[in-house]
Design a protein that fits this description.
Elements (H helix, E strand, L loop, with lengths): L1 H19 L2 H19 L4 E5 L2 H14 L11 E3 L4 H11 L4 H9 L5 E5 L6 H12 L3 E6 L12 E4 L5 H23 L2
Parallel strand pairs: 1-2, 1-3, 3-4, 4-5
Helix pairs in contact: 1-7, 2-7, 3-7, 4-5, 5-6
Length: 191
């Protein structure tokens, strides 16, 4: 069992090492942090969503911005659209699950906000619909996906692709990217 655990840890490290060696993806992470920083500086907000583990990642990243990451500072407006179960279930019941994020984006997004859709495959219809609606509202859209980017990559302003097709490894990298962005944003806004 210990050798299997060591292999899983090495697999996770390999994916992050490959990501760290890709100047294009590093540039996208830096740009995402800069866009979020400017949006928050201008009184805008960040909206995040995804399904399953990606929903948990959306909530985790929103919390890092709203609460704090490393510094004692004021809260930043970041909202995970995955937390209101009454809203999620009502929209899914009345309009279909594919609309659970787009309907909330329609209600909450404004021009100049940043909307982050998270999907390991890049093919989650509810996430794709959410970012399409966000672009209609004038928000800057970011996709966090796996290697190929899926359909989501075609509908966002910027897609950050983790170089893996293995869902757990992708999710581990997504939360690392979220932590990096949180640290960069916090450092810029509260130097």
């Amino acid at each position: 069992m210990e050798s299997r655990i060591a292999e899983m840890l090495r697999d996770s490290s390999r994916v992050k090492e490959e990501l760290a060696s890709d100047p294009e993806e590093l540039g996208k992470i830096a740009k995402a942090a800069a866009v979020i920083t400017e949006a928050l500086r201008g009184g805008k907000k960040v909206l995040l969503f995804g399904n399953g583990g990606s929903a948990a990642d959306a909530q985790h990243i929103a919390c890092e911005l709203t609460g704090r990451f490393k510094k004692e500072r004021r809260g930043l407006p970041a909202i995970a659209l995955t937390t209101n179960t009454s809203c999620l279930t009502a929209i899914a019941n009345d309009y279909g699950y594919d609309m659970v994020f787009s309907r909330q984006v329609e209600a909450f997004a404004s021009s100049g906000d940043v909307v982050i859709g998270i999907s390991t495959s890049g093919n989650s219809k509810s996430v794709i619909n959410g970012v399409i609606k966000a672009r209609e509202k004038g928000a800057f859209t970011v996709g966090l996906t796996g290697k190929g980017g899926g359909e989501l990559a075609k509908h966002v302003d910027m897609c950050i692709r983790v170089p893996s097709n293995d869902t757990p490894r992708i999710q581990e990298s997504h939360i690392t990217i979220g932590h990096i962005i949180s640290e960069l944003v916090e450092g810029e806004l509260f130097a």
